[in-house]
């Protein structure tokens, strides 16, 4: 579904990504793990079109999207749940969810999608008229995911969904990720919590200062000593 | 003669050549009255631009009413020379000084209310004050009302019956006053007071937390800038001989703002260059008469599109920066006596073993009806490492903000070393002995690593702003002292080799270390660390644990640590407080916390999901 | 009493024009955090357009009004694309200076093309005043107030209910997150400028009806006052711009009538300062606390 081929990204003179290639197939949960500063967020920003790639190709659904502007990628079904939630705090929960469906043709009815999101996240249904800024961290994460779901994504990319959440909430979020995947959405997951990520994903790539240094099935990497030492501690 | 001394001498020579050559040309009549007037206008513009740069570039606050200070200085100076019957060469300096002081007073009076606002609102309110000054002056009779003040003694006529000779004196006066003012602003910027001002621009919250009295320095910079603008106004009045309040309106303030931005905010040399260019440009374009303003505005737009940071950005021209080190070397070259290095007074290690350092008694705060923290009783003993954990929104950072005076508690008390610090301002609390780091790293980004540390030493240094400007022995010895101390401190953290790197160029883990290092440089008795391991991988976290342990042994300080990373908390804390919904729900050693069912339920999850003791095998939920 | 009411109505009259211009300032500030110093000069552009279309091309008035609005929108969009868009990622002060440059360019070009001599505004309303509750109501005054209020209500509804309005709110809050929702940020920003300039275009007609002298610096003073009005109400907040505009207008007209004409400026700035000292984010502004 998504094929990234040898992309490089520069911030001024600093090279953040040095030639990244990976792919995500339909129905999978793929995760990218790595240290802070390894380039994980840069990859998602590049795929979403927020930052440009100097070289390389990004193919989504067999189409080359290098030149496709960011908002068009969203209408193709490539949706990101950004790092730090980034909900629109001055808008209500309902309005945030409606924004999630922004890219979809106006004719489609939103009610079914809203119902489905509320099924995943009953707490959001309770708070649907509240301003998003008044929600707690965990509820905002749920809202961010729900908002992404409203766009009926073909590929949902998530940037560090566990950040700043307590262990209980992290468990909850990850089980929801599994649910979403089970109902047919492909997931690309970038995580600092390598533990949770590798226990949830099918396949994984390990990033280190702008390069992919290891790849394989999540189970194998979980047991891999090198990865363990570098990312799970001794 | 070594290279640095050469640069210093070159500097002085360049100034002298510039001065004398133009002076001769003026007094011989080669440069006629009109062009010498332009040179004077340039000099005044340089002073205005440099002084505005103090507020807008160094302090980082956009000010839109700067011409108002110029007008106050102009009118006060003019009224004084008109009313005093003494010789002009005596009344002029008095008048200029009085004008400057009057403008400074206005700056102070305006600054006190205005500087409480931020960003664009501050800009608007200074605009409002500038306009009010104009309207008030226009409606006072002593200032001549709307008709203005006329027949003010002109420097180009007063010193000699010959216009050429008098113009030369006028040029000399303006030139040397300009040199003194811009040098003062430059050396002030490099002194500890300048560092304090720049740190406010970089990150006001962090500056306050590092012990800098931010309100004082904002007022200081604003008032000093007004002072210089007042002097410029006085010079202007005695150049033109005629004043109307309308000249000092909003458009004049904008004129100088444009100079500052085009030259580069924070760069004094940039301001000089752009003042010279922007005053001369309309003259050069005079030939195009009707088109010149159109060309001028187009050039302005083009300039901003292609060099948005201004000509010099925040850099200074290299000849002048040699001044710094040249100063030291000049003394060596001429074998001037080196006074013994006076080390700054660093009152450390005056806490005795196992004593109570910090205690809170039923501390709490409500925002409206919401009780963000309630009945918090925390005790910290010297040399302890204590953890503060709890779910998101439990109130952990609120507690830190209460301890550091960012929030005023609505209940309870905070006792530091036996004395209550309730209601004290943040920078005072830092000086008393509580230092902190922040959840989102707050470094002074465009300063170097070393400078970030030096800001923390500010409150334990003593040399005055005047000392900093003239660079006397107090300045030299104290600066040398803290330079050594700062490098010493960086060595403890293995960062001595990045001392001169810019703070925002460091990798994430080192930025965190720098923030902790800076907090330690404040010489605290209590160190508050807010999620220091956020965003770190397990290896970096291990390093951090080592760093914290090192701090505890080498610095005799109590550490209170907020964290989500259970590995870190359980691995390093001797005691842990658990917060939930603003209350302490449990406290004790790691073992007891891990097994406390209330804690487990609220936060840690069921037992087999808890992080293992360090060294144990991982439990993985399959 | 009659004098008071008359001054109040005068104040509402000039205040509604300030409000229309203030809306443009506040919408642009809300979305790109730029103080568009050139916005007041759009008023001048609209006025001169009317002059040209009527005196030189002799077009019918309704067409002229439509064209004035279109030309103002065109100018606004052009300025945004050429001068402001390239500086979106640069420090904000650079955009501020560029805006100042654009303002100067507009004024000086007008001076070059049309000469500084004032020209009469070509549209005149020759409807006699009518009596309402014992007061003399000028037709222009009533029209101005009603049209302004009507436009403001439409704008509010537009922002709150339509998709474009929601995208404007989203982009004002978080540009990057909006991109991730599929919002075409560039178009949204351009639309914001366009709407602001359309309002200024209508404002220029209403202004010209009240003050029939057209000169290159026509937009400078009303622009500044409208900007102050926007800040007074809380910059970035649409109802705030409306409130601020009316307050400015009433304060100005009251001061001119009861205190002194010269001091009206000072009083207006004085009100601003007092408001900001007690409500630092403006009357309707929300205190955004920096999260420590």
Tags for this entry?
heterotrimer; B: 622 residues; alpha/beta; Rossmann fold; 3 domains; six-stranded mixed beta sheet; five-stranded antiparallel beta sheet; 24 helices; C: mainly alpha; ABC transporter involved in vitamin B12 uptake, BtuC; two-stranded antiparallel ribbon; two-stranded antiparallel sheet; globular
How would you describe this structure to a colleague?
The complex is a heterotrimer of chains A (234), B (622) and C (292). Chain A is an alpha/beta fold. Chain A has 10 helices and 10 strands. Chain A has a 6-stranded mixed sheet, sandwiched between helices. In chain A, a hairpin with a 2-residue loop joins strand 9 (203-208) and strand 10. Chain A is globular, with a radius of gyration of 17 Å. Chain B folds into 3 domains: 3-253, no CATH class; 357-433 and 524-622, Rossmann fold (3-Layer(aba) Sandwich); 446-522, no CATH class. Chain B has helices spanning 3-27, 33-58, 66-83, 88-114, 119-138, 155-158, 163-190, 192-202, 204-209, 214-240, 250-263, 268-284, 292-306, 318-333, 396-403, 426-432, 449-456, 465-470, 473-492, 508-521, 538-555, 566-572, 590-595, 597-604, and strands at 356-367, 370-376, 379-381, 385-389, 411-416, 419-420, 434-436, 526-530, 558-562, 575-580, 583-588. In chain B, helix 7 packs across helix 8 and helix 17 (449-456) runs parallel beside helix 20. Chain C is mainly α and 292 residues long. Chain C has a single domain (2-278), classed as ABC transporter involved in vitamin B12 uptake, BtuC (Orthogonal Bundle). In chain C, 73% of the residues lie in helices and 3% in strands. Chain C contains 11 helices and 4 strands, in the order H-H-H-H-E-E-E-H-H-H-H-E-H-H-H. Chain C has helices at residues 2-32, 39-56, 61-84, 92-114, 139-161, 163-173, 175-180, 185-210, 220-233, 238-258, 264-278; strands spanning 119-120, 130-132, 135-137, 213-214. In chain C, strand 2 (130-132) and strand 3 (135-137) form a beta hairpin. In chain C, helix 3 crosses helix 8 (185-210). Chains in contact: A-B, A-C, B-C. The B-C interface holds B 56, 62, 113, 116-118, 120-121, 124-125, 127-129, 131-132, 135-136, 138-139, 146, 205, 250, 254, 257-258, 261-262, 265, 290-291, 293-294, 296-298, 300-301, 304-305, 308-309, 397, 401, 406, 438 and C 29, 35, 83, 86-87, 90-91, 93-98, 100-102, 104-105, 108-109, 111-112, 224, 228, 231, 235, 262-263, 265-266, 269-270, 272-273, 276-277, 280-282, 290, 292.
């Amino acid at each position: 579904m998504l094929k990234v081929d040898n992309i490089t990204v520069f911030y001024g003179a600093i090279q953040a990504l040095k030639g990244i290639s990976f792919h995500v197939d339909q129905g999978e949960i793929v995760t990218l793990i790595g240290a802070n500063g390894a380039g994980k967020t840069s990859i998602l920003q590049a795929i979403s079109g927020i930052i440009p790639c100097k070289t390389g190709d990004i193919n989504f659904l067999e189409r080359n999207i290098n030149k496709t502007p960011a908002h068009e990628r969203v209408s193709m079904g490539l949706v990101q749940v950004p790092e730090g939630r980034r909900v629109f705090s001055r808008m209500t929960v309902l309005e945030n969810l409606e924004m999630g469906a922004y890219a979809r043709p106006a004719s489609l009815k939103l009610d079914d999608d809203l119902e489905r999101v509320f099924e995943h996240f009953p707490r959001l249904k309770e708070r649907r008229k509240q301003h998003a800024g008044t929600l707690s961290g965990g509820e905002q994460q749920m809202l961010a995911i729900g908002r992404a779901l409203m766009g009926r994504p073909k590929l949902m990319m998530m940037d560090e969904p566990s950040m700043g959440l307590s262990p209980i909430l992290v468990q909850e979020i990850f089980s929801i990720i599994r649910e979403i995947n089970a109902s047919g959405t492909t997931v690309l997951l970038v995580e600092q919590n390598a533990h949770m990520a590798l226990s949830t994903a099918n396949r994984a790539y390990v990033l280190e200062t702008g390069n992919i240094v290891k790849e394989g099935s999540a189970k194998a990497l979980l047991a891999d000593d090198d990865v363990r030492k570098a990312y799970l501690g001794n | 003669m070594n290279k640095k001394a050469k640069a210093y001498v070159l500097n002085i020579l360049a100034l002298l050549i510039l001065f004398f050559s133009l002076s001769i040309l003026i007094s011989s009549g080669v440069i006629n009255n009109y062009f010498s007037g332009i040179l004077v206008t340039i000099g005044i513009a340089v002073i205005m631009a440099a002084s505005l740069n103090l507020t807008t570039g160094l302090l980082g606050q956009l000010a839109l009413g700067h011409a108002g200070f110029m007008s106050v200085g102009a009118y006060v100076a003019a009224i004084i020379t008109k009313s005093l019957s003494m010789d002009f060469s005596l009344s002029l300096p008095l008048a200029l000084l009085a004008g400057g002081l009057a403008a400074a007073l206005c700056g102070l009076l305006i600054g006190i209310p205005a500087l409480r606002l931020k960003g664009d609102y501050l800009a608007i309110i200074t605009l409002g004050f500038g306009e009010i000054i104009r309207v008030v002056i226009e409606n006072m009779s002593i200032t001549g009302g709307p008709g203005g003040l006329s027949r003010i003694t002109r420097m180009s006529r007063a010193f000699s019956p010959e216009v050429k000779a008098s113009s030369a004196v006028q040029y000399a006066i303006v030139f040397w006053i300009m040199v003194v003012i811009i040098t003062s602003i430059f050396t002030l910027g490099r002194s500890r007071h300048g560092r304090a001002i720049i740190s406010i621009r970089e990150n006001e919250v962090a500056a306050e937390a590092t012990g800098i009295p931010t309100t004082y320095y904002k007022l200081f910079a604003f008032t000093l800038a007004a002072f210089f603008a007042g002097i410029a106004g006085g010079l202007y009045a005695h150049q033109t001989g005629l004043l109307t309040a309308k000249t000092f309106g909003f458009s004049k303030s904008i004129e100088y703002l444009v100079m500052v931005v085009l030259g580069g905010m924070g760069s004094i040399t940039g301001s000089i260059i752009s003042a010279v260019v922007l005053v001369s440009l309309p003259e050069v374009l005079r030939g195009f008469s009707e088109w010149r303003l159109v060309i001028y505005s187009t050039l302005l737009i083009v300039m901003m599109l292609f060099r948005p940071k201004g000509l010099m950005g925040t850099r200074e021209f290299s000849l002048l920066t040699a001044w710094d080190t040249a100063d030291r070397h000049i003394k060596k070259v001429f074998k001037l006596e080196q006074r013994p290095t006076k080390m700054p007074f660093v009152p450390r290690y005056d806490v005795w073993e196992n004593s109570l350092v910090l205690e809170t008694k039923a501390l709490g705060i409500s925002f409206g009806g919401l009780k963000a923290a309630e009945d918090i009783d925390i005790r910290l003993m010297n040399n302890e490492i204590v953890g503060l954990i709890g779910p998101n929104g439990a109130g952990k950072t609120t507690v830190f903000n209460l301890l550091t005076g960012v929030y005023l508690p609505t209940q309870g008390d905070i006792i530091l070393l036996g004395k209550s610090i309730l209601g004290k301002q943040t920078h005072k609390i830092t000086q008393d002995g509580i230092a902190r780091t922040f959840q989102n790293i707050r470094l002074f980004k465009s300063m170097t690593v070393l400078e970030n540390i030096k800001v923390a030493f500010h409150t334990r240094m003593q040399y005055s702003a005047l000392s900093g400007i003239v660079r006397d022995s107090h300045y030299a010895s104290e600066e040398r002292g803290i330079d050594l101390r700062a490098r010493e401190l960086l060595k403890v953290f293995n960062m001595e080799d990045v001392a001169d790197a810019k703070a925002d160029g460091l990798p994430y883990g080192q930025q965190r270390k720098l923030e902790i290092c800076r907090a330690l440089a404040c010489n605290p008795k209590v160190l508050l660390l807010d999620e220091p391991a956020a965003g770190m991988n397990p290896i970096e976290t291990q390093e951090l644990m080592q760093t914290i342990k090192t701090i505890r042994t080498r610095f005799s300080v109590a550490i209170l640590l907020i964290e989500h990373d259970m590995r870190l908390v359980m691995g390093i804390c001797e005691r842990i407080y658990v917060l939930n919904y603003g209350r302490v729900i449990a406290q004790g050693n790691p073992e007891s916390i891990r097994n406390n069912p209330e804690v487990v339920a609220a936060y840690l999850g069921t037992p087999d999901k808890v992080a293992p003791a360090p060294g144990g095998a991982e439990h993985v939920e399959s | 009493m009659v004098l008071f009411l008359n001054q109040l109505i005068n104040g509402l009259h000039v205040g509604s024009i300030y409000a229309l211009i203030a809306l443009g300032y506040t919408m642009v500030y809300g979305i790109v955090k730029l103080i568009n110093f050139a916005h007041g000069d759009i008023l001048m552009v609209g006025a001169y357009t009317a002059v040209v279309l009527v005196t030189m091309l002799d077009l019918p008035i309704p067409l002229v009004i439509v064209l004035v609005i279109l030309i103002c929108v065109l100018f606004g969009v052009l300025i945004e694309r050429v001068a402001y868009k390239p500086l979106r990622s640069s420090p904000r002060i650079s955009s501020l200076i560029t805006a100042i440059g654009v303002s100067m360019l507009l004024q000086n070009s007008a001076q070059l093309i049309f000469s500084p001599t004032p020209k009469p505004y070509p549209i005149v309303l020759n409807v006699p005043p009518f009596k309402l509750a014992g007061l003399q109501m000028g037709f222009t005054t009533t029209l101005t107030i009603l049209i302004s209020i009507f436009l403001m209500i439409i704008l509010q509804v537009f922002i709150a209910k339509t998709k474009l309005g929601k995208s404007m709110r989203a982009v004002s809050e978080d540009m990057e997150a909006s991109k991730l929702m599929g919002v075409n940020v560039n178009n949204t920003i351009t639309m914001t400028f366009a709407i602001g300039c359309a309002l200024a275009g209508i404002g220029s007609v209403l202004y010209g009806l009240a003050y029939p002298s057209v000169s290159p610096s026509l937009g400078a003073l009303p622009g500044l006052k409208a900007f102050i009005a926007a800040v007074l109400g809380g910059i970035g907040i649409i109802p705030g711009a409306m409130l601020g505009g009316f307050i400015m207008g009433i304060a100005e007209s009251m001061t001119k009538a009861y205190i002194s004409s010269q001091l009206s400026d000072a009083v207006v700035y004085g009100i601003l300062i007092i408001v900001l000292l007690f409500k630092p984010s403006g009357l309707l502004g929300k205190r955004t606390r920096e999260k420590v």
